[in-house]
């Protein structure tokens, strides 16, 4: 960029943008209330660093609290229109929140700093500038200090923003607010559909040791049967060709899956491939399509996560592939095991946080299943729900990418 103007701007605005420090466009910077949180009193809300969503920067209302203090002398900590909060310490340093009147009567806590934007500037425009790579770089550089990272009020006040005239600020701020609302709407729809699927899993699969589910498709009345998974499937584990032998990895001829890829849920391709020579000289083996893939180990929440392959592929040793026999439907087994994620985590370790699964543990799993025809009905229903959930996630990702791109192009 050759001038103090953005790559994209609204028609009718031609003036150069002027650099202003956050301290110049704000009336003051104030530290928050030094009080613990208590049960919500129905009116007075208390916002802490952990109450600000990391992605949307909205006030999370799942577990609302009130400040445990005498509020008759705490008016100075009550948020007003145009207030922006900044996290001043810890891993979330730099996280921001723009007060929304719809959030109600909100007091802010001590690890937050409030900047009250002056009326001659648009607070939404200023807030959107705290979501840019320019701001993130400022936070990264400024917060680097020994021990716990932190940024104080004086340091926040030094952050520079290029500002157009107020009318253009308002236009830009409103544009991003509408985009944020669209993202929030898609996210809400996505979460509702996930919750609906989880509820249906509870109703269409037997719970708490029962042999029939709460809801069944019309025309099916036969009893469900308990089956040991290892007696009705072939369970295989894979392997990794030696990484220091290039002939095992080139040419890239055979799809090869690592345990982290179970998070894709449905595998239409893999991130890596191996050569035919690599397959022949390792314990990797072909897995037929429509097998259930379960992570035996992996970082974070990977262990116990299940997926299904839509193409033949090979896997590493941290994945077990379950090739079901003709009396089981792979989509049904996939959904059954997905709904038992916590059980699988605990099965692999006493505390659910360490350890690993193995083929024998999986083979010993019991599955309560109806006829194959009823399995297919149930499996197809959840596959369709999964497809819709994936589509919504893709749309949400696109919107988030659009916003990230527009922040770079519409803000200097």
From TrEMBL:
Superkingdom of the source species:
Bacteria
User: Which parts of the sequence belong to the Type I restriction modification DNA specificity domain?
Assistant: 16-191, 222-400
Keyword check for Metal-binding, yes or no: no
* Gene3D superfamilies assigned: Bipartite methylase S protein, DNA methylase specificity domains
The molecular function terms in GO held by this entry are: DNA binding; endonuclease activity
Among the GO biological process terms of this entry, one is: DNA restriction-modification system
InterPro entries from the entry?
Restrct_endonuc_typeI_TRD, Restrct_endonuc_typeI_TRD_sf, Type-I_RS_S_subunit
Coiled-coil boundaries? 382-409
Q: Which UniProt keywords apply?
A: Coiled coil, DNA-binding, Endonuclease, Hydrolase, Nuclease, Restriction system
tRNA processing: is it a keyword of this entry? no
Q: Which SUPFAM superfamilies match?
A: DNA methylase specificity domain
The transmembrane segments are none
Family named by the database record: Belongs to the type-I restriction system S methylase family.
Protein name as catalogued: Restriction endonuclease subunit S
Recorded source organism is Oceanobacillus zhaokaii
């Amino acid at each position: 960029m050759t001038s103090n103007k953005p790559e994209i701007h609204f028609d009718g605005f031609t003036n150069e943008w002027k650099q202003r420090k956050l301290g110049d466009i704000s009336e003051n910077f104030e530290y928050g209330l030094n009080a613990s949180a208590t049960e919500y009193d129905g009116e007075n809300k208390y916002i802490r660093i952990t109450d600000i969503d990391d992605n949307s920067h909205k006030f999370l209302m799942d577990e609302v609290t009130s400040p445990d203090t005498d509020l008759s002398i705490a008016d100075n900590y009550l948020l007003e229109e145009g207030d922006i909060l900044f996290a001043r310490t810890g891993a979330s340093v730099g996280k921001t929140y723009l007060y929304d009147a719809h959030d109600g009567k909100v007091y802010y806590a001590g690890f937050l700093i409030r900047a009250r934007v002056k009326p001659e500037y648009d607070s939404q425009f200023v807030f959107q500038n705290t979501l840019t790579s320019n701001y993130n770089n400022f936070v990264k550089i400024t917060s680097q200090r020994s021990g716990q990272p932190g940024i104080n009020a004086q340091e926040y006040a030094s952050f520079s923003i290029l500002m157009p005239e107020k009318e253009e600020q308002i236009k830009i701020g409103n544009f991003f607010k509408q985009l944020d609302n669209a993202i929030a709407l898609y996210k809400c729809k996505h979460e509702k559909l996930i919750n609906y699927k989880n509820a249906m899993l509870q109703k269409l699969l037997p719970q708490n040791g029962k042999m029939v589910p709460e809801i069944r498709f019309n025309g099916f009345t036969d009893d469900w049967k308990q089956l040991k998974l290892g007696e009705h499937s072939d369970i295989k584990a894979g392997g990794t060709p030696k990484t220091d032998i290039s002939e095992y990895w080139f040419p890239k001829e055979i799809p090869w899956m690592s345990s982290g890829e179970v998070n894709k849920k449905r595998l239409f391709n893999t991130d890596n491939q191996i050569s035919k020579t690599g397959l022949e000289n390792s314990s990797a083996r072909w897995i037929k399509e429509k097998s259930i893939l379960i992570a035996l180990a992996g970082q974070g929440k990977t262990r116990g996560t299940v997926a299904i392959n839509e193409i033949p592929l090979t896997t590493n040793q941290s994945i077990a592939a379950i090739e079901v026999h003709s009396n089981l439907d792979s989509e049904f087994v996939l959904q059954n095991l997905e709904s038992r994620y916590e059980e699988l985590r605990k099965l692999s370790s006493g505390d659910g946080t360490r350890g690993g699964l193995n083929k024998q543990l999986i083979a010993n799993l019991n599955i309560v299943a109806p006829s194959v025809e009823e399995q297919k009905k149930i499996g197809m229903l959840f596959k369709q729900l999964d497809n819709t959930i994936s589509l919504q996630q893709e749309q949400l990702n696109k919107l988030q990418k659009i916003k990230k791109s527009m922040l770079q192009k519409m803000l200097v």
